[in-house]
Amino acid sequence: MAGSRFAYVRSFELPDPVLPGVFMVVRIDGKGFHGFSQAHEFEKPNDAVALELMNHAARHVCQELRGDVTLAFGESDEYSFLLKKSCKLYNRRESKIVTHIVSLFTSAYVFYWPQYFPKKALQGPPSFDGRLVVYPGVQEVKDYFAWRQADTHINNLYNTTFWSLVLLSNPPLSERQAHETLKGTVSSQKNEILFSKFAINYERLPAMFRKGTTVVLAPTRPSSKVRKSKRRKAHPRELRTLHVDIIGSAFWEEPEAGAKAAARAEGGEERSKSESCRGAGVEDGLEHRKRLYIPIPSSVQADAAPFPPWEAPDRTQGTAGLGRWALRH
Fold it and tell me: Which residues does the annotated region (Disordered) include (predicted)?
């Protein structure tokens, strides 16, 4: 009871409010996920179904904290969540916010595991740690997410090249030999190894692997009838799951400017693809792609879908300017 003689112990609790009027980012990381992925035999270099489970857990967090979390970005075993400046969750107490988001994510990961791995039981409980960092303005937030996506590219290019050397070389290389081969190499050299040795065009690998996953709360896409109407009405928000570039300006700008920037970026990417594919008859590394496209549980993909969910067109198209909605609060 509050009035008991033991109530004095509450005085040892320290207040930990976050500064008002700043953006908050909570980043969670899997603890011991190297061993966890081995125990559950995740595919190398990327297990698409395991990544989609991470995305589902992130969407659960965004849905539960819909009025406060406006953007999330994830890759591998980590996810970052952006909370708006005006967020009043738990009176902005850092410990409460971090533990709640980590708890929501972890419980969702366990709850939805059977949906993504119906024939693979959990061998142990997964766990995640978390931290909260504050950012004063919009530019710092953009730079933070650019940093995480750049890290995604660096890690994925290395891992893709490394596991290609280990799994596809003839004769096969040991992991130590693969590390030695890649020591001191830069991105262009890794791309050359993938293309010359394994006929893998890195730019044609699934965008989810190369660019990570962005979950954003954006206006619902209007129907053609609504678009024709001259009356402006506020559209409800929906969670969009995307695999797009968030380092450039297209994602963050108004639609018209963003669309032009996106078109320029896509044009450059297409030129890169065509240049790297010179030499007719070169495949995209079919054996490697077979390892990338592991069987998809029916609970994850609808029978009528012609492609896995992470390659759905709406995850990579019509995304110009969506990021600005996450920064308006």
Answer: 261-282, 302-329
Q: How far apart are CA 74 and CA 15, in angstroms?
A: 30
Q: Is residue 58 part of a domain?
A: yes
- pLDDT tens digits, 207-239: 999 999 999 988 887 654 444 554 555 567 789
247 found inside a domain: yes
Number of structural domains found in the chain: 1
The closest of 299, 296, 317, 318 to 307, measured between CA atoms, is 296
Measure the CA–CA gap between 93 and 19, rounded to whole angstroms.
10
**Domain that residue 255 falls in:** 16-153+207-263+295-327
CATH of the domain at 80: 3.30.70.3000
Q: Is the peptide bond before 309 cis (omega within 30 degrees of 0)?
A: no
The pTM of this model reads 0.85
Largest CA distance in the chain: 83
Contacts 24+ apart (CB under 8 A), 90-94: 91/17, 92/17, 92/18, 92/20, 92/24, 93/15, 93/16, 93/17, 93/18, 94/16, 94/17, 94/18, 94/132
